Amino acid sequence: MHGIQSSHDAIISKSLDDIVESWNDAAEWMFGYTSGEMIGETIFKIIPPEKLEEEQQILFRLKNGERVEHFETKRLKKDGTHVDIYLTISLIKNEDNEIIGLSKIARDITYQKMAEMRKNDFITIASLELKTPLTTIKSYVQLLLVKARADGDQFNADALSRVEKQANKMSILIQNFLNNAKLLEGKFDLVIERFNTHELLEEVVNDAKILSPTYELVMKDCEDVFVLADRNKIGQVMENLVSNAVKYSPVGNTITIGCKTIGGHAQISVSDTGIGIINNESPQRSPQGLSILFKNRTCRPKRKLAHQ
Q: Which of 59, 46, 40 is nearest to 10 (CA)?
């Protein structure tokens, strides 16, 4: 009992009738109610109206044998303000293995949430500050590109075209940062379009060859495969995968960018001969590999070991 009272986490137990049966010191500090004010009272005193269904749904799932992972939610303090908590819930059973109540452990994550907000504010401000100089850079690149083409300077025209393309990608990244609030919530806008995987992979490989001339980049792809996905975001993922393959592979090694169809899917992969991932079932290291699987209007990353 002393351990419960001295815990930094609020530990609360309640009956199946939602009546509070125990309330430790941390719960008093977190919610503002003393144990005398809460024991014998309904747990709904600390649950916001919009979260009432959450309580019943959790009990229903637990009774049906489902495992309820810890999750983030909000609760009410005595002064009416909300507190962000990390909540873990488990069943209380009697000697006959009958469910007689719920035990809850709540951890205050207000400071973590504030830190996330400050980080989000910083990213937003930094992104806005980057937009102006990037716009200027793009304008000058476009002017130089027009001049290079007019002068018939193919080398500089090609180089400036690539700079312009990368600047456009940077603009997209900055816009994604400006939508950081959505990203933190796991929500970000997808621009779904039909595109040719061969053209996208060709762009990624050509850029990589310029940036990493000491590596051999090989394409093994299906030229006539079209997918419905967000082209820019898939391009960013592929660039990151190729960049990581270069980073963790010995100089001069081969990096293979491939594409194959599997039923109604298109699977794009990047594999190399770097240090790879240790296979728990084998003392040997497997070649590093990652793939992305496309299906219909969605795409979802799928990690795998690419056995050569």
A: 46
DSSP per residue, 281-302: T-SSEEPPEEEEEEETTEEEEE
284: burial class by Cβ within 10 Å (0-12, 13-18, 19+)? exposed
CB–CB of 38/48 below 8 Å? no
Which amino acid belongs to residue 30? M
DSSP 142: H
Taking the C-alpha atoms of 110, 112, 113 and 118 in order, what is their torsion angle to the nearest 10 degrees?
Answer: 130
- Between 4 and 65, the higher pLDDT residue: 65
Strand blocks (E) in the chain = 10-15, 20-23, 71-76, 82-93, 99-108, 192-196, 216-220, 226-230, 254-262, 265-271, 277-278, 285-286, 289-295, 298-303
* DSSP characters over 108-119: E-HHHHHHHHHH
120, 162, 207, 308 from 158: Cα distances, Å: 37, 6, 11, 35
Give the closest residue to 123 by CA, choosing from 65, 81, 66, 183: 183
DSSP string, 19-70: BEEEE-HHHHHHHS--HHHHTTSBGGGGS-GGGHHHHHHHHHHHHTT-----
pLDDT digits (tens, 9 = 90+) for 88-127: 988 888 998 888 888 999 999 988 888 887 877 777 787 7
Q: DSSP 3-state assignment of 94?
A: coil
What does the pLDDT average to over 166-193? 72
Strands (E) in 119-246, as ranges, are 192-196, 216-220, 226-230
Alpha-carbon distance of 83 to 74, in angstroms, equals: 6
Is pLDDT of 238 > 80?
A: yes
Tell me if residue 242 falls in helix, strand or coil.
helix
